[in-house]
């Protein structure tokens, strides 16, 4: 009886470890060309102008955002770490927008995984998010990005061949807005 229980426990532990390694293995890799996900053109004309997609119909791709660098936050409105990161990302957004050298070159967007439009809008209003947020209610984008945990940050830069390339891929919110700003501007050589 004990042996059977130990075997089952060992098998469960091995399966758990394999699944943990499996999910980590497919995080967006630095230097990799991005799976260029499609997002709906925001109804808000300010967001359309900010992203440079004012004349687009229906959907646009991340690579079509009018910027040299795009920082994508993968979040969930139910994630307490995402909620804590919201004011810091607002501060980063303001720091970029108030800097003549970087305004227009660096853009921020967020993708709410497993969140409906209503939930994303609630998150935006609750935390006064000033940059565009998009919903991913059926986890389609989340799966394309390797089902990363939240919050997760993916920095994308237009490469020499015009295709978006990942320059930053990391979980968590350990950096202050200033440290994140310095990291983005240093790595991308803007």
UniProtKB/TrEMBL annotation:
Gene3D superfamilies, sorted: Glutaredoxin
Superkingdom to which the source organism belongs: Bacteria
Any one Gene Ontology molecular-function term assigned to this protein's record: antioxidant activity
Domain Thioredoxin: 28-189
Pfam families registered for this protein in UniProt: AhpC-TSA
SUPFAM superfamilies, per the entry: Thioredoxin-like
This protein's name: ResA
